[in-house]
Amino acid sequence: MLDNTIRQRLEGRRVAALLSGGVDSSVAVAELVSEGIRPDLWYIKIAPDEDEQLTCTIEEDLEMARAVAVRYGLPLQVIDLHHDYWERVVTYTMERVRVGLTPNPDVMCNRLIKFGVFDERVGHDYDIIATGHYATTEVDAEGRTWLCTSPDPVKDQTDFLAQLMPWQLEKACFPIGHLPKSEVRAIAEREHLTAAHRKDSQGICFLGKIDYNEYVRRYLGERPGQVIDQATGRVLGMHKGVWFHTIGQRKGLGFSGGPWYVVRKDMERNILWVANGFDTSEQYSDHFGTEPFHWLTASPFTQGGQTIDVTLKIRHTPDFTSAQATLLDDGSLDITTLKPLQGVAPGQFAVLYDGTHHRCLGSAEIRLF
After folding, report:
1. What domains does the chain contain, in order, with CATH numbers?
2. Is the pLDDT assigned to residue 201 strictly greater than 70?
3. What whole-number distance in Å separates Cα of residue 27 and Cα of residue 68?
């Protein structure tokens, strides 16, 4: 059953539900229908027709989405946003990769496409946009909407939603956000949904089955350079392009005497710096900054220079790290974590939560001091 808060929000409202073809969005629709809500169903097409290697599983996805529409007698429409996706999200991703950053295209897809361009084209005709994300919302005494975590810490997706604009969050609805994944699967079984046993999608959709490095190679090409041991200055070999590697990476370096970890990328000199060992100090950091911070609903700071206690994530994980954040004059944050984090990389999103990691406060790209 729908959470009481969601039920109250949806009463008498016009609802659009975004279907991906997976079990989560399928059950989100089932939950809406169980409460007498008849949403219009939309499938967002982001894979281009002209490149078969990059079409993801669009035909299978559409087949699953159509099965949900038929199951509940709901209208399903397909909206083609692949040009917008490639112009906005893919360009964002590759330009950051080009300069040595570690971007998260899924974060920007939610802000720019699912709750962005979709709203510009058709979503503005709806009061609510429902998705199958694992997240919840709550409204405070002042009428402000907050993004809150799912009770399933492994599936929680608030980190992927932490760049939404306030107006986007106010329109967003997450019908399965209060459920654990096991219950979502059970509902899919009970409702005889075609996607009940479908595996969760992995990775970035626009890549489809193509290897990530192969895609980067097609977009940015190769630029060979040296791989150097940071401790000794010894040249270990050559890389094919710094942009093929991420800070904290261990697999795929191919050097003997390892393990070797990527600890720094020098884009100007085209050098990949690595460190040797299973758990070396070079892999960790407990102090970093952010770009000007994006607050989802409201900033918890009352003045510049103030320091507050928070919890945070720097990647998609069920674990939260306690930290202290100081607001700087330009709106960015100076963050010190209570325990060092492995693989802190510029371009990653630092996602902040309150002390009990219930409310997601917002996010910003990391920059290193």
Report:
1. 4-199 (3.40.50.620), 222-278 (2.30.30.280), 282-367 (2.40.30.10)
2. no
3. 9
CA distance 365 to 369: 13
Residue 109: active-site member:
yes
Q: Give tens-digit pLDDT for 203-256.
A: 555 444 456 777 788 889 999 999 999 999 999 999 999 999 999 888 878 888
Contact 349, 363 (CB under 8 A): yes
Q: Which amino acid is at 251?
A: K
**CB 44 within 8 Å of CB 58:** no
Query: Are the CB atoms for 322 and 309 separated by under 8 Å?
Result: yes
Active-site pick, 56, 109, 148, 360: 109
Is 148 marked active-site? Answer: no
* Helix runs in 74-136, H state only: 82-85, 91-98, 105-109, 118-121
* Cut 0.85: pTM above it: yes
pLDDT digits (tens, 9 = 90+) for 14-47: 999 999 999 999 999 999 999 999 999 999 998 7
Q: pLDDT tens for residues 76-85? A: 999 999 999 9
Q: What share of the chain is helix, strand, coil (3-state, %, to 5)?
A: 30, 25, 40
Kind of pairing between the strands at 284-290 and 333-342:
antiparallel
* Active-site option among 56, 173, 205, 360: 205
